[in-house]
Amino acid sequence: MNPTPRVRIAIQKKGRLSERSVELLRRCGVDFDVRTDQLLFPSSSFPIDVMLVRDDDIPLYVYEGICELGIVGQNVLEETLAARAVNVAENVRTLTALGFGKCRLAIAVPKGDRYDGAKTLDGKRLATSYPQLLGRYLKSKGVTASCVEMNGSVEIAPALQLADGICDLVQTGSTLVANGLREVETIFESQAVLVQTQRPLEPEKQQLVRRLEQRVVGVTRAVGAKYVMMNAPRSALEAIRKIMPGMESPSVIPLGDDGQKVAVHTVARETDFWVLVEQLKAVGASSILIAPVEKIID
Ligand code: PRT
Ligand code: ZN
């Protein structure tokens, strides 16, 4: 008899995506013991082996089918596969965006420099660790600029006279400000994604992949969501709907015999819940309860 099939997922070993990737897997019921000097960590709770690697290697492992799944930033996925002339859309299946590791790849120039659109970059030298994505952008704008490839500390290149501007990842923008640079173009928006190889999988493995994907989607959808319950006069329902326009299919349950009072249950997300409570109280809601949501499964 064949042993139970297992799938492999590659995640970043050490860096900005590691902690969130491990936490996501744990919340999906994939527990594993992280011990040093190992490459593969078998999960005892789900038939999956977690491979801890440099993020730059993840796209290739998934493309080649060495790992069926991977968690990686879209910036790294696009850049590393483009460097091998591999088209991401055709060769890797993006299952879902994960909502973390959000950043943008942006062009920045010294803050005192004139900038009137991409044409300003003609003939300039731009330092970057993303020559593929930058090259693609420059080409799309018909701009001829040279790429100065650097592996790190790209932001210091203009001060060192190595380049006239840079193209690097930006999150808060504080690194640019600290180096006297000004962001002038966003060329790529990125976040961490769950990707699957396009190589054919045996049905049992494909089923495992689907199961994990559904769990990941359920956990990811719940991020920032809260379950909101309250009692309110039926006449306040309209006002409550206005306060919570994004309210997802609220349940309205009559309380008592005359139906004048109702209980409202709903999921709300990405809001200041203290302000929400104050607004709900102001229109007559009471016994307001806000509870965390762990998973949202359709
Ligand atoms: O060792 P390994 O190769 O695995 O890791 P790494 O050093 O190549 O990558 P790492 O851990 O730094 O980043 C992993 C991924 O996190 C990136 O590929 C992005 O998808 C994502 N990410 C999100 C970021 C940032 N935000 C980010 N701000 N990656 C890097 N930065 C850097 C940026 O390069 C710049 O130096 O942070 C600085 C800018 O930040 P702000 O906040 O000052 O704008
Ligand atoms: Zn890397």
Explain how this protein is built.
The chain is of the alpha/beta class. The protein has three domains: 7-101 and 192-222, D-Maltodextrin-Binding Protein, domain 2 (3-Layer(aba) Sandwich), CATH 3.40.190.10; 103-189, Periplasmic binding protein-like II (D-Maltodextrin-Binding Protein, domain 2, 3-Layer(aba) Sandwich); 226-292, 2-Layer Sandwich (Alpha-Beta Plaits). The protein contains nine helices and 15 strands. The chain has helices at residues 18-27, 58-64, 74-82, 88-91, 131-140, 174-178, 203-222, 237-243, 273-282; strands at 7-12, 40-42, 48-53, 69-73, 92-97, 103-110, 125-128, 146-149, 165-170, 181-190, 192-197, 225-233, 248-255, 261-269, 286-292. The protein has a six-stranded mixed sheet. A hairpin with a 5-residue loop joins strand 13 (248-255) and strand 14 (261-269). Helix 2 (58-64) packs across helix 3 (74-82). It is flat, with a radius of gyration of 24 Å. The chain binds phosphoribosyl ATP and zinc ion. Phosphoribosyl ATP (PRT) is lined by residues 12, 15-17, 54-56, 73, 75-76, 101, 103, 168-175, 190.
The outline comes out as flat
**Helix and strand string, N-terminal first?**
EHEEHEHHEEEHEEHEEHEHEEHE
| Major sheet attributes | 6 strands, mixed
Number of strands: 15
Taking the alpha carbons of the first and last residues, their distance comes to 35 Å
Helical fraction equals 25-40%
Instruction: Look at the structure and name the CATH superfamily of the largest domain.
Output: Periplasmic binding protein-like II
Oligomer: single chain
In this entry the ligands are: phosphoribosyl ATP, zinc ion
- Give the low-confidence spans: none
Question: Strands of the largest sheet, in order across it?
Answer: 2-3-1-4-11-5
